[in-house]
Amino acid sequence: MKKIHVGFLLSYDYEKLKQSIPPVYHAADRIFIAEDSNKITWSGNKFNVDESFYQWIIEFDVDNKIEFYRDNFYIPELSAIENDTRERHLLSLKMGIGNWLIQVDSDEYFIDFKSFVQNLRKYDHYLDDPEKNKVQFACFWLIIYKYTKEGILYVDKPMKSVFATNYPNYKYARRTNERTVYFDNLVLHESIARTEEELLCKLKNWGHSSEVDKNFLKKWKMIDENNYDQFEDFYYIKPNRWKKLDYLPTRKIGEFKKIMVSKSKLRISKSYLMSKNFGQWFKFLWKKTDAGFQEYF
């Protein structure tokens, strides 16, 4: 118990796991990879996995800490996002309540996972009775929007995203809607930064397949390093969530990571973290107090 357990979902973009698993490998006690037994996506489409990927896992897993969890994760009666949420719940049950349940998507690359674990360990007491002390933990995405011929377009400010919980009562994907504790850890998120063919595959199969804005793809295809600053509102569901883009003249993830970490406007300030965490503490303290008051009467 109280182990660092990290879960990944294997699907049509499984090759990206070769980039997302290594950053968490050494600081994780165990890694679980969920794979649909019939190789079916949340939208009911088939996908294939090249045998070379499984061979890569065997060769990479020198500490023997990676485990596959295969089950039926596609239920035709459920929507894509409901299948998404269900799979994450089943995966976390497999990982074991009483441990830290961390889920990382295949296109998310932690910049300093060891630091994230150190932050998480400060809350180990929440694992003593998880059901009575539900909490979730968020980091901040640095979102890659698109690879251009010469560089990378990215969303010009970090966006919060939940990565861990002590109790997996997920309501929407990996969000539990419980109290959130924010850390200043950064995670590169390739998100929609794919080839057009790969992006079309993702839009058809991921949990948000029914929510995508009808004008999104047309704009995405049109944007490049020469015109990005003439547009705004780039998010694929509610466009104004990603208001503006910025550009770096490199296509190498390693260089991109170093430059992004050094940019002052992308750092999460202590005052911002304090205000977010105090707000969450107060909000859920009030909820508990209100619930107790109603129960008393």
From TrEMBL:
Query: What's the source species' lineage?
Result: Bacteria, Pseudomonadati, Bacteroidota, Flavobacteriia, Flavobacteriales
Q: Write down what this protein is called.
A: Glycosyl transferase family 2
Write down the superkingdom of origin: Bacteria
